[in-house]
Design a protein that fits this description.
Blueprint lengths: L1 E6 L15 H6 L3 H9 L1 H10 L3 H19 L3 E11 L8 H22 L3 E2 L13 H11 L3 E9 L4 E10 L5 E10 L3 H20 L3
Parallel strand pairs: 2-3, 2-4
Antiparallel strand pairs: 1-2, 4-5, 5-6
Helix pairs in contact: 2-3, 5-7
């Protein structure tokens, strides 16, 4: 059995803010009309209340709102700990160089597609003297230090001349639980077949992992 391993993918405090609303609202609270308007049009009502604030306070409030929205929209971070190749096809011809090239190309294609999706952010991790993926617990620890939430372990297994499999597992670095697991198969030991497999996997990863925020 021939095997190849590819590792890696490539505050301050804000003091109290004093807001001054309309005196009538400050004394008696919003009227019934205001409440009805709130229910019917939250956006218009929010603009109305912000307009009643003093100018610096309104700017600060708006900045905080934008910062919160940005934090929510930030995609989860993932690292590709390792991708390995196994060949149990029994073919006589030595294809190690071809398979190594295809494995590198598959991971690069996967990274490019995930980055283009905007749903996941890929980062690298350092695993010391051992290759990433050789020790799962070490990979998870390094991922946590780097700020990655998800850690991907994958492989390509050539089972026969025409049939290959693509088993993939993603683990949550904090909980240690498997959050994504697939065992796909594809036909054809060619550059095009490997690239199509990478495209399909990237779509699944982007869709399912981004939903776990």
């Amino acid at each position: 059995m021939r095997s190849l391993r590819l590792c890696g993918p490539a505050s301050g405090r804000i003091g109290p803010v004093y807001l001054e609303a309309d005196p009538a609202i400050r004394e008696h609270g919003p009227s019934e009309v205001d409440l009805v308007e709130d229910r019917k049009s939250p956006v218009r009502s929010s603009a109305k209340w912000i307009g009643q604030l003093r100018f610096p306070a309104a700017i600060l409030l708006f900045s905080v709102m934008l910062g919160t929205t940005s934090a929510i929209a930030s995609p989860p971070q993932m690292t590709i700990a390792s991708f390995i190749f196994h060949d149990t096809s029994g073919e006589a011809r030595d294809q190690r160089s071809e398979h190594e090239t295809r494995l590198v190309a598959l991971v690069k294609r996967l990274e490019a597609n995930l980055a283009a999706s905007g749903k996941l952010r890929l980062i690298d991790i350092a695993c010391g003297s051992q290759p990433c993926g050789a020790d799962v617990s070490q990979s998870l620890e390094q991922a946590r230090k780097a700020g990655a939430r998800f850690v991907l372990f994958g492989a390509v297994h050539k089972m026969s001349t025409l049939v290959l499999s693509l088993p993939v597992r993603v683990i949550d670095a904090e909980s240690g639980k498997v959050v994504f697991e697939r065992f796909h198969s594809f036909r054809g030991d060619t550059d095009e077949a490997w690239q199509r497999a990478a495209d399909f996997l990237a779509r699944e990863l982007a869709t399912e992992l981004s939903a776990k925020q």
